[in-house]
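Fold these two proteins, one after the other.
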Amino acid sequence: MNKRWKPNVTVAAVIERDFDGVRKFLLVEEETRDGLKLNNPAGHLDPGESPIQGCARETLEETAFHFTPTALVGVYMSRFERIQPDEVLPLDITYLRFTFCGELGAHVAGQPLDQGIVRTVWLTADEIRGNVPMHRSPLVLTSLEDYLAGRRFPLDVINTDPSVLLQKK
């Protein structure tokens, strides 16, 4: 095999807000091939951006909220396989996911959400735990539990060389 394996790099946000003493977390409902699913605001890293920049961009695109990452919650790898119609081998994708927490900024009224995003929802940790079959990925709950356990790493553990930021999109 001469082809080099490369995981898909994604970014995600765990965003918490207090609603009169009740901790809730911002998720998105999105249409997928498997129906309506819950996910963290998340998406693929674009060429020319750092993981921190990608997380801020994806959160804005999927929720219409500005977001400033302040800490890394964790770096995760997961593998996804799906049987493809008329194919002998299943679709086999590995994701490398950088999950951040941070400060939620202003909502941008009237901004359309990314294609496939139906709406944003605020759920408690127990509501998220109780909806595991609706999760787009096991990383939704894993990221939440790591966040609740206090896992925080400084952003400077991620080093993006300036040569990356000079790429054209």
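Now the second one:
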Amino acid sequence: MARGAKKLSHIGTRGEAHMVDVSAKPATARVAVAEGRVLMQAKTLDIVRKGDAKKGDVLGTARIAGIMAAKRTHELIPLCHPLLLSQIDVDVTPDVKLPGIRVTARVKVSGQTGVEMEALTAVSVACLTIYDMVKAVDRGMRIEGIRLLEKSGGRSGHFRVRE
């Protein structure tokens, strides 16, 4: 391993995957913010904004899907710890400049491990829900830019994307 390189915490000495033992870590306030976007044709965005999608309220459904996904991240991502999340905010905002929809998720916990995966899962599933609800109108939509924007709490401290 290169000098100064970080060791992967989910890989054992023989290369086997394992769940990290966080029992000795103190519980701290932890927050993670992630984002993503669904790019679509302007006419598709108009349908979503007007509430005319055949499957119903796209924005509200995507928001709920993101919240539900954050709560179930440990069931979807191997080796994630189940967490008692204290707050999940999912914002689903139409953006005519894209054209498309911007999705952000902010997840908070007081615990022994971070919530980055929960925020990223919330964004991913909200974006997939948007795609599913309007794919009949626009199969050429693109989901892109899913990334962690910020995290705080824990031993590794604060991280924020620099543009």
